[in-house]
């Protein structure tokens, strides 16, 4: 995985294997040490690379940790289960499964907490994680429109607002359920969330 905002560098070509090892080591360091004790030196040792290798790729800890967390959510895909409701339930269950992993919980909670004091970090989270995952909402709506489950959008601005709202409702609900309330996002809960979401979509389409 390539860092989201790589600095312009010259020299030897990047190593995808090194990037993968560094991001995995970062996530494990967050689980073991937490944000405050995590250092690039420790990550370099865990990844088996020189510290200078990290600095050639990331400007500092903030950028590195966000990219390590973003890589987890890049694993998300939208399943084709035959209907909009089933597709939503499928992707939400996958999202909840990722959040159940210790490295995802530790990483996401750490960057969100640190971002309350760092505007640049908030922006990086938005670009690298939030905006990237809105692709799932766009893909899901397009598929539902092709099936005739949702009407086509003719207003681009309204469509963009709807994508933002749907993403916020789904992601916010799952994160709150799993990381704040510490309750399982099981099939029954996901089914209820999907039912509420679809009711809202139907009302907004009228």
Automatic annotation (TrEMBL):
Keyword DNA-binding: yes
Top-level taxon in the UniProt lineage: Bacteria
SUPFAM superfamilies: Homeodomain-like, Tetracyclin repressor-like, C-terminal domain
Positions of the DNA-binding region: 39-58
Keyword terms of this UniProt record: DNA-binding, Transcription, Transcription regulation
Keyword presence, Transcription: yes
A Pfam family matched in the record: TetR_C_11
Coiled coil ranges: none
Domain HTH tetR-type: 16-76
Record-given protein name: TetR/AcrR family transcriptional regulator
Organism: Streptomyces althioticus subsp. attaecolombicae
